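Here is one chain, start to finish.
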Amino acid sequence: MEYPGSVLTRKWRRGLLCFFIATFLITTPIIVLYTSGYRYDWHNGLLKQTGALSLDMQPRDAELYINNERIIGLAPFRFKNIAPGHYHVRLTATGYYSWEKEIDIREKQTTYLKDIELIAKSRAELIAEGPITQLFLSPDERTLLYALPSATSTAWHLLDTPSQQSRVIFRGPSTQNAQTAWAKKQSFAAWSMPGTTTAKLAIANTNEGSAAVVAEIENGSGFYWQENGAVPLLYYRFENQLITYNPLTGQHTQAGELAALDWSVYRDQIWTLTQTSSTAPLIITKDALGFSTVFGQLTNDALRERASELEQWRLELVYEGGVLLKNNATNQLYILSEAGGRLLPGSGTTLLSPFGNWLLWWNDSELWSYLPSEEPQLLKRSGERLQAITPLDTFNTLALATAQGVKALFPYYLVETELPISATNLVAAVEQRWLYVVGSAQNKMGLWKLAY
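Its structure:
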């Protein structure tokens, strides 16, 4: 049927209907594919599904470049429908070191770049000049304990970090291998000065700025503060006796017998490592309120050692993830948890990060990490002679002291930033973002502070 004078004749109407149907059939799949994340690769002539990129960083106003193209905006960034491929990401901000990383965007996957806090540029400030040998920071980051030796003795200094005021609190024998323990709820620090058969144990009241030798302890036997008590009590061992010391009253109290190869205190529980005979397995026991429980045992088969060498193993640390043991002769490490035990690759010095149960260990050429329920990860292998490590932030960015200088390592991305100082030892006040370094800068050797 046609209407007189109508432009849309039956032929035109049929043509338009066919056009709209064809348009619908063509565009609908395109729209569906587009909303599903597909894009056409004109270079290769292929239809590909896209990926996504999520990026978080501090400072939020840092400039973001992807393949050298500036992206306008503030963090966090969320990018969808990115063509799969290889991309170069660069973060820059005035007064900070740049951060660069090559990344791959994959189909139907989101690539995450998070927990990135740029390192600020600053000039190192000299705190104390001289051959500093020891460096310890309190858990609240308010007190720094360091040792400055002379020809006849070693002067132990306390630095109040907020005021940056330092004072000598004790003079003792020269030592290179001191150990320290801080009371978490009271203002006391304990440190040992190794001798031939025993070590001198000194206690400092950080509020009063005074210290004195209070006891002798067996070499390698350790000393630990009670964590939860209202009164500060220090546990130490002498002649196979467990003794507590109260610095408020000066009283030493015998707490019981402690005949063990090694011992430790964790959450106010006494952990011991014992062996009934030279061929027997090593037994790890924890004692709480007088009730002993066997946590686990180690055999020569598990450690791949001859039975006569089991006695070389010691308790390196006890933490929420389990028990870490170390071989005194080889520096080899073994982790034991309720789920079982395993030898760890590599060997060397250990550190438990205060931010999560992240275990680190290193030697001159390798740096490893381990988290419970995950496989050990090799973070770095080089010939730079790694000497000391400290976390820089809650994301576990690390400061590494090497023979070539100090570097900041972002371990999740294996990105490094070189800092303008050399060091043999270092610790970080994370809340204040200050790095204390024993090393050299500006042609001077001493203790330096570097804001980061």
